[in-house]
Amino acid sequence: MRTTYAIGIGSNRRGRHGSPRAEVTAAIEALHDLVVAAPIIETPPLGPSHRRFANSVAIIVSDDPPPALLRRLKAIERDFGRRRGRRWGARVIDLDILLWSHGSWSSPGLTVPHIGLRERRFVLAPLAAIAPRWRDPVTARSIRQLAASVDRPRPRH
Fold first, then answer.
1. Residue 20: which domain range?
2. Which end of the chain has fewer beta carbons closer than 10 Å to its terminal beta carbon, N or C?
C-alpha cells in the first residue's frame, strides 16, 4: 500500500560526506522515493551537545509499513556511521519518521506522529515549508498552525 511519510533529518557532526549540512544532503539523496525536501536550516543544539545542527525534512512515498521504514532508516544511519550513544549527543545523522499519511502508529520502539513533533521548531519549520496543510492526526492542527504555536512566546507563571 503506497503511503506518504515525512522524515526528519538532522546532523551536527562531520562524517564521511563532510559537514553536517553535507551529511543532511547525502541522507536526502539516500532516501528512496523522494518527493520533495525542505531547505536545510541550521539550529542551536538541544541537550548537552554544543554543536549546531543542520536540519531538514523530506517527504517520501513508500510501500513500507512504519516498522519496515524505521528499519530502513536505521540502516541508512548505520551506513553513515551513526552509533548508538547518549541521548541528545552529537550525531553524524539522525532520521526520524515524523508523520505518515495513514494517521497514528504505535508499537514498541516507534510512535507516529513523532513524540516531539509538536514542540520542535527545527522540525516544524522545514515541514511547514513543504507540507503546511498536513494535519497532525492527534491534535487535528495543521503543520502551519503547529509551527506558529512553537514560535509564540509562552506565558510565564
1. 3-151
2. C
- Domain with residue 42: its CATH number is 3.30.70.560
Active-site residue identified among 64, 94, 120, 136: 94
pTM, two decimal places: 0.90
Give the type of residue at 147. A
pLDDT tens for 93-132 read 999 999 999 999 999 989 999 999 999 999 999 999 999 9
**What's the number of domains the chain is made of?**
1
Q: Which of 91, 118, 120, 136 is an active site residue?
A: 91
Catalytic residue among 64, 71, 83, 96: 96
Question: Over the range 95-109, which residues count as b (16 or more CB within 10 Å of their CB) and which as e?
Answer: bbbbbbeeeebeeee
* 79 is known as an active-site residue: no
In a domain? residue 10: yes
